[in-house]
């Protein structure tokens, strides 16, 4: 019995993924694709001046051409489906908004002309144009954000969290990042409900990218 238990423990340890390491050394210079199962993208506004209102995007993708030897030479392309979001609104939306053309709050937030206007502008994109290092594993990425028919430069504060090599990914690297920025929604034509929701919108990302085969 002891031998069986020992064998099982050793097998489990052998199968366990390699621990992540915050290093750039040896990380593959390659194209990486976002892992949607382990990535999160939110936007936050101040509501009524007293709370932070958070909405999750549920459909987005990104391609990262990563240069571990010179991260500033890396490029990022991100697309977001503005119609796919979760605002965690448990109330009966139609009961509280009988005149709304939308059946639920998620659809209203996505498609109403006052908000994301996804029915007219079906994609949000971010395309990087430059990057700078601010520390060993931190930096900024500047790019063009296209949203509601407007394109404006936006700078992300980015942290490289490290690399992992899960055995089920074979020899491929998995790298992780967090990123954040603040945009002014009025610059993208969204100025409804002044005083109820803030003009500043905080965007936050945390996720993993898998090296392409």
Pick out its properties.
single chain; signal; TTHA0802/YceI-like_sf; mainly beta; Lipid/polyisoprenoid-bd_YceI; 213 residues; Lipocalin; disordered N terminus; 12% helix
Question: What does this molecule look like?
Answer:
The protein is mainly beta and 213 residues long. It has one domain (28-211): Lipocalin (Beta Barrel). Helix content is 12%, strand content 44%. It has three helices and eleven strands. The chain has helices at 2-15, 93-96, 105-111; strands at 30-34, 40-47, 51-57, 60-66, 75-80, 85-86, 124-133, 138-147, 150-164, 174-184, 200-211. An eight-stranded antiparallel beta barrel has the order 1-4-5-7-8-9-10-11. A hairpin with an 8-residue loop joins strand 4 and strand 5. Keywords: Signal. Pfam families: YceI. This is Polyisoprenoid-binding protein. Residues 1-20 form the signal peptide.
Q: CATH first level: which class?
A: Mainly Beta
**Structural class, judged by helices and strands?**
mainly beta
Task: Quote the beta fraction.
Answer: 35-45%
Write down how many β-strands occur, each being a DSSP E stretch of 2 or more residues: 11
Shape: elongated
> Residue ranges: pLDDT <50 for 5 or more in a row?
1-17
What percent of the residues sit in helical stretches (DSSP H or I)? 10-25%
- The named CATH superfamily: Lipid/polyisoprenoid-binding, YceI-like
The biggest sheet, with number of strands, parallel, antiparallel or mixed sense and barrel status, is: 8 strands, antiparallel, barrel
Overall average residue pLDDT: 92
The span between the termini is 42 Å
What is the tally of helical segments? 3
**Major β-sheet strand ordering:** 1-4-5-7-8-9-10-11
- CATH architecture tag: Beta Barrel
Radius of gyration equals 21 Å
